Amino acid sequence: MHDICIIGDKDSVLGFKALGYSIFTVEDGFEAERVFERVADEYAVIFIVEEYAEQIKSSIDRYREKKLPAVVPVPGCSGTNGLGMSIIRDAMERAVGADILFKDE
Q1: pLDDT tens digits for 16-55?
Q2: What is the CATH number of the domain that holds 19?
Q3: How many domains does the chain have?
């Protein structure tokens, strides 16, 4: 369990194959959840397109406090919805007790 994979629509994930990542193409949230549940214990890092990460948030949350896998939402071809940055902000706030990265000026 030291590999990296990415879950998302074909257009968003195909380029990651060149990096040596395992890719799992899905067409909807239901399929994304099935794939996620299947690979969660096999991969150390799971990148998932934000659109699908948002749809399967409850499944991802079950792994949030575990050491592995690290689940990282990434923007898809259609752009970002802010989920990835929100998760990073929340994790940093829990770690240091304050929002030090994204403080509004």
Answers
A1: 999 999 999 999 999 999 999 999 999 999 999 999 999 9
A2: 3.40.50.10580
A3: 1
